[in-house]
Amino acid sequence: MLAGMETGVSDIEAVVFDFGDVISQSPPPEDRARMERLAGVPADDLWSAYWSERRAYDRGVSAREYWGAVARRVGADWDTATLHGMWALDVGSWLHVRGDTARVLELLARRGVRSALLSNAPVGIAAALRQSPVMSGFEALFFSCDLGLCKPEAAIYEHVLEALGTAPERTAFVDDREENVLAAKRLGISAHHYAGGGDLVSFLVGHGLLDSSDSGAPTPR
To answer: What's the superkingdom here (predicted)?
Structure first.
């Protein structure tokens, strides 16, 4: 049984959330299809190049550099308007928020639980999220593009811990990628591998951050 489950007193001072596939949904098929049509290259080639160049983009290279590198990989000669279109469609594709996780964030905020965001994200997505109502309850937003570091590098977690002023064992972390969760655990952080809203609520209830009556609050999507 997790600490805090019996007493209702939490052993956690702050919860740090990933964004992609935790707060947001995966880019929907219709968004991906729009990008494929605009790119005008085989879909498999596009997505292979997209992910191959993504780490540098998350570390802070410009959109023009990133999409230029993707174009070179797929043998395309995209003009500036096409580069802009790919950038805009990509940013928008990551902004579809999960209703169940948004509800959890609302509950935590109402209870005064400290929370923060830690996301591997390029500049364009980070800029959009800074204006998002879903981010309003977070104490701090940490983006890889600002730090020049990406999960699962230990230094990015250490930066967050120092900025929040919390000990690893008093910090919870939620992410959908196993390698990011394992990296956090190696530092002593109480990390949860996100697999859906129900499991997330159970994790937070187990640490005394939500009540058991909240277990039915989110509607999984």
So the answer is: Bacteria
pLDDT-derived band at 165, boundaries 50, 70, 90: very high
Scan for tokens 């900025």, then name that residue.
Answer: 163
- Of 194, 152, 39, 60, the residue nearest 50 (C-alpha): 39
Q: pLDDT, tens digit, for every residue of 56-81?
A: 999 999 999 999 999 999 999 999 99
pLDDT reported for residue 221:
38
Torsional sign, CA 63, 183, 14, 195: positive
Task: Give CA–CA dist 112/90, Å, rounded.
Answer: 34
pTM of the model: 0.91
Predicted local confidence at residue 220, as pLDDT: 38
Q: What integer best gives the mean pLDDT of the chain? A: 93
Mean pLDDT of 85-107: 97
Q: CA angle, 39 as apex, 221 and 176 as ends, to 5°?
A: 30
* Edge-to-edge strand ranges of the sheet holding 190-193: 140-143, 114-119, 14-17, 171-175, 190-193
Q: What is the set of domains in the chain, with CATH numbers? A: 14-26+97-215 (3.40.50.1000), 29-93 (no CATH)
Bridge partner list, 97:
24
| 130 alpha-carbon distance from chain centroid | 13
3-state secondary structure of 193: strand
DSSP H or E segment with residue 121: none
Task: Report whether the peptide linkage leading into residue 29 is cis, meaning its omega lies within 30 degrees of zero.
Answer: no
Record the tokens describing residue 84, joined without a space: 């802009």
136, 36 in Cβ contact below 8 A? Answer: no
